[in-house]
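note to self: dont lose this again. the chain is below, predicted strucutre after it. 290 aa total, dont forget to put it in the shared folder this time
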Amino acid sequence: MAQKITVIMGPTASGKSALAVARGAHDNAHIINADAMQCYDALPILTAQPPLHEQAGLSHALYGVLKPDKSVTAASWVDMAASEIRTAFDAGKTPYIVGGTGLYLKALMEGLSPMPDIPADIRDAVRARTREDIYADLQSRDPVMAQRLKAGDTQRLMRAMEVLEATGESLSVWQNMPPKKLHGEWTYHVVAINPDKEILERNIRTRLGNMMKAGVMDEVKTLSDKIDTGVVAPDALIVMAHGFRNLRKTLNGDMSMDDAMEATVIETRQYTKRQRTWLRHQIKADEMIA
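---
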């Protein structure tokens, strides 16, 4: 008999964590994070990681497990999540996968296209190059990926170049191969939260205000200092956390706090719109909650 996993998905600020705790209390749940930014330990407040007092005594996993200079991909997250899923089943618990990074959820449930291993020397050589040089090279040698990727997306540009150098094939060729499940033949009950956009915006504003009261600027300054001193790269994935770049500008007087907060609300709202569209078209829900 297949083991069943509960998946709770939805846009940012829709109440996924609270729902997971409320339902999980009845299922002896082991709650597993599926939000890319919440995997990092650098910005727990800004990325809305559930604090200990809101976890209701349930075990939580994959929150704050990575340092800001590390990278996480769909494949590496699936590996981590699969390990936590097995841990939950072994302990007689129900795995709850909770998050808004749709690609991670899709990769776990449906599989990933096979990807080649990249030799260390090729990876090191690519990472020693500038982003501008890599992008120009891709435009010449792999126009398909160059068109798909943004010129400033260093991580994905490097990945495309690594695959091209290692295999002689465009990353797009590998991505078009049939997906393969990496772990387990589990079944999934997918719960989708999809509030009205007006409710989402209200939640976003309320949450941001609570973040300010909780001391979010302290963690913004700490990460900003690490970037300034070269400990963390300025294009590290965690830097993309909604609000970080806006709030960082206030530290040097480049933006007022009011403007930074409003820009963060707009940025987050625009992201939720993309999340809602992606999740609606890419993952079939068994249960919908408005």
